[in-house]
Fold this protein.
Amino acid sequence: MDTLTLDGSWSLEALDRDIISTYCPSLSGKALSVSVPFDIHSALLSGGFIDDPYIGQNALRSRFITHCRWRLSRTFAFTKEEGRVSTLVMTGVDAHADVRINGKSAGRCTNAFTRYLFNITNILEDGENSIEIVFDDLSQVLGKKHERYPQMKDAALVRKSCKHFGPSAITPEGIYDEIRIISDDCLIVKSWNCNPRLVDHNWIMKVTVTADVFRDADVDFNIAVAGRKEHTLTHVTPDRKFYSYTFTIPEEDVALWWPSGMGGQHLYPLEIGFASYSDKRMIAFRTVGIANDEDECGRAFRIMVNGEEVFIKGAIWKGLETLPSRVTQSACIKVLNSAVQAGLNAIRIHASSAYESELFYDSCDRLGLLIWHDFMFEETLYPCDDEFLSEVESELEYQILRLKSHPSVMLWCGG
């Protein structure tokens, strides 16, 4: 498996000259050098083309950004090899954009909360290639959707953070995660997870890999955790995408993970190898559940971790910044540390925010902060047509499989 990362320097230009000449004439005819991941507001602010949208009425003055189409482009070198499938992997594309390689369509992104995998094998060239990502005029996207759903809010019609449609009037667009091309002759791993379950004093370790398979093959499946090494030979085939291997670890061989204030946060590295793919993440051993027993007051709702009731002391998390480029790792860690120092043991990721970065969830695991995780559906009506439901299904499959190994994630809520 080979990975080519396309982060770094790209060129950004506005495509609607009339809008730019009216609202931002200093940008007319110019292409900006930006570093991906990025958001357009921050790029224009850094270049001196807009004033800080957090101050005064500047957010309103920058509304032209969502009424304009934007093109992000660059070139890259690529070496083609016979028999290998190349997949363009894109995450955090906010929100509606067409992707082209060498002038040919690679795919379309319409959901900032999911990951897109586009097979680009047949449109790549051996040598220099070009890629461009054209962001739609968001106001036109919403206008077309309101023709069908005139009663619904903007936030219900586009799969991006609901807070981008709030009173701040800041609606960022951009790419908030890395862009990669992965090439392999057998398969591409989309996700993997392990959520230990305690049964009869043994931890049942079911490691599940989700993969797109290109051809039938027998591949090595290797797992190492808590002093154990497991290996099996797994047959993969294009008509199957889930592959699991299960083994047990005696209860006494590992230490429990506890919420902050109730015990230690013991984490164990789990390493896997699946065909040519390899990865490592931290996991933990804990049980979590909800006790709904009845008493004289009615039905209870008690969070139980490792059989012990947890008195939840939490806060709502709506993200650190409206503009994603302003979020730093150190700021995220500092805020979560301060939550524990203040005596909290839980965080609710609110439905109006967004699914967070791996750093966020890793930090909650390390600090013992339980997560009540909303899905990104605020208190409003949403479409229920096949197109919308299919988009949401892909989003939830990606996010749940991505996050289910984290011991801090205690429950999911509809929003």
Residues 386-403 form the longest helix (18 residues).
